[in-house]
């Protein structure tokens, strides 16, 4: 295939979103937000969480994060001023296929390794990187796992209340009786975001969360929060589901072979679980059949930085052009969603702090600058100040565990 034919196939199968269409798509995202908060049909679930801007109580606790590919356990101490100090951390890899019991044993072994087998019932907070239906149980927030994403699966967990299940497991298996609070990872990031109104995750998956005024939510929608009367509500948008962006041929191919065909369209062109699959789907015609398939989006970034080794320099140049296109389209989608939120909360001018997390956002080459580039095309008077607050997600989980 000649170079001109390869470039034509790239444009036909994986085009960038036209710059002139970006503002309209951001406005569509805002309208989807408004529809969801009004309890009308929308591609965005906008899950309301019974969480407000809490202050942690003094004492010791345990923060647990369950992500798409990795997790960690960290012990912490809160002083009388509400300042949180993390004492240690244990990282662990998460298998893509596991069971509820195996996962709980993995978490608990890491807890006991940090506490030197001390089974004192420290309060536990869990940040969970999967869609949860939030609820209050005995004054603590819990979450019912709605479904699995990112190509992962935890047997016997879907439809169960994660906190209550782990609480019961600790009693039965380890004779530990303590409180367990659970929230989505984006909500934990927002809670620990040092006052930021918006938090986003662009890593294995894609999501945003933000603080919304209770008065802006339809009474029927507020029925999802029985017993919660605070004036502010943490909204987990589940932004991966936005479906108003015109599709591409390669996304259709990846979607068809995914675990949830017809869903998570924005995520399938923006997040790490899928970007390398986009490359593999178009590689033969755009780069060449001899170029190896990728096994992770980290390798896609390696192509961008020159760290990926290939025999042919010509094919590497083609691969780099394709990788750039993939990351640019990902950044366009993130910018569209972020600007839609900014339009919704009326922050369209000046500097706006946004707490971000995720390997794609912070490790992919020049990614924050790319998002800024497209944000400027949509809202030229706003300057998003992307913050990577060290431990902000952990801080949110700690507040969750010892919140007041």
The CATH class of the largest domain, by name, is Alpha Beta
CATH topology assignment of the largest domain = Hexokinase, domain 1
- State the end-to-end distance: 64 Å
- Unreliable stretches: none
**Tally of structural domains:** 2
Order of helices and strands: HHEEEEEHEEEEHEHEEHEHHHHEHHEH
Structural class: alpha/beta
Strand order of the largest sheet: 1-13-12-11-14-15
Describe the sheet with the most strands.
Answer: 6 strands, mixed
Number of helices: 13
CATH architectural type of the largest domain: 3-Layer(aba) Sandwich
DSSP E strands, number: 15
Structural notes for this entry:
The protein is α/β, with parallel strands linked by helices. The protein has two domains: 3-42 and 240-387, 3-Layer(aba) Sandwich (Hexokinase, domain 1), CATH 3.40.367.20; 55-191 and 391-402, ATPase, nucleotide binding domain (Nucleotidyltransferase, domain 5, 2-Layer Sandwich). It has helices spanning 3-13, 22-37, 100-114, 162-174, 185-191, 219-222, 249-256, 272-286, 297-305, 313-345, 359-363, 367-378, 392-402; strands at 47-49, 59-66, 70-78, 84-93, 97-99, 124-128, 132-137, 140-145, 153-155, 180-184, 198-202, 206-213, 232-236, 350-357, 382-387. A hairpin with a 5-residue loop joins strand 3 (70-78) and strand 4. The radius of gyration is 21 Å and the shape is globular.
